[in-house]
Amino acid sequence: MTTCHWKTWSLRKPWRFKFLPSSVVPDLIRQPGHGDHRGEGAAPTGPLTLASESLQTPASEVKAAPGWRTVDFISDLHLQAREAATFAAWQRYMASTAADALFILGDLFEVWVGDDITTATDDPDAAFARQCQKVLLATSARLPVYFMHGNRDFLLGEHFAKACGMTLLPDPTGLDFDGQRYLLCHGDALCLGDVDYQQFRLQVRKPAWQTQFLAQPLTERQAMARGLRAQSAARKDSGATYADVDPTAAVLCLQANGASTLIHGHTHRPQDHTLDATAQPPLRRLVLSDWDATAPSPRLEVLRLQAGHAPRRVALAPAR
């Protein structure tokens, strides 16, 4: 059993988060799946049932254009101004990819506190956001760029997406490509072992909660984000354990959407899993890697689908 250690914010006006139960401390951008890990296969109850049911409903669809031969997937880059090497690697990839379409499956940014960050002046976070916007816009001029929210950047809105030329996708979304159907999601909604997070996620995805949070001054939202960065680093250093995607929920989602392969990020555990080898075709999930150019073994990986070929992982070199 993993005990949930929620991040604590110094809030002068905690009433702003009245949508949260008193037992849950606000934690806008959490690390993957940290909480009450009841183990894989544990039966969801209450909000967990709602979370799993929402992923079982028929997803929206993207049908590959006739000319698509290569489709790329990335997630969990956690871009931020102080991680220049990771940004440089991403910038180079975005300028050079020969893919016919790119899907970003959440947590592109370490934190996103509202689209108005791009209009702030004399602010390093604002300057970095505008720099990322230019990269995204340049790429979307060459190929379709699709974006799905993660647990860190779920407040990224239509305004910023439009300015970047990106298409926002609901979670989950189906993809028909090369005669196969894939199901795309960020992955956090399937980590059912993290009870507290699932309760929190259901609330912060409500329009009313988001409207109330975004109505706060940008400087206050940024201050909260800075506190989260520090606390997130402390949790990582503590050796905390994290819940993984629930395999039963993953199978149910695939079956409900008529798909055989689930592609997701969030867990930072890149691997290919077979969920049901007896199904025709076999059911599997492909987990995307997070990005960190400064790690002892840099993690800069793209999952690539190519017509007529099996999915493959492409390891990128850090930018020089």
Please explain how this structure is put together.
The chain has a domain at 56-191 and 242-315: Metallo-dependent phosphatases (Purple Acid Phosphatase, chain A, domain 2, 4-Layer Sandwich), CATH 3.60.21.10. The chain contains 8 helices and 12 strands. The chain has helices spanning 47-56, 84-96, 124-140, 158-164, 195-204, 207-214, 218-237, 247-256, and strands at residues 60-63, 70-74, 101-104, 145-148, 167-169, 173-177, 180-184, 261-264, 271-276, 283-287, 301-306, 312-315. Helix 1 (47-56) crosses helix 5 (195-204) and helix 1 runs parallel beside helix 8. Residues 1-45 have low confidence and may be disordered.
> Total number of helical segments?
8
> Uncertain runs with pLDDT below 50, 5 residues or more?
1-45
Proper CATH architecture of the domain at 56-191 and 242-315: 4-Layer Sandwich
- Report the top-level CATH class of the domain at 56-191 and 242-315: Alpha Beta
**Share of residues in helices:** 25-40%
Biggest pleated-sheet summary: 6 strands, mixed
Backbone structural class: alpha/beta
Annotation keywords:
Purple Acid Phosphatase, chain A, domain 2, 17% strand, alpha/beta, disordered N terminus, 320 residues
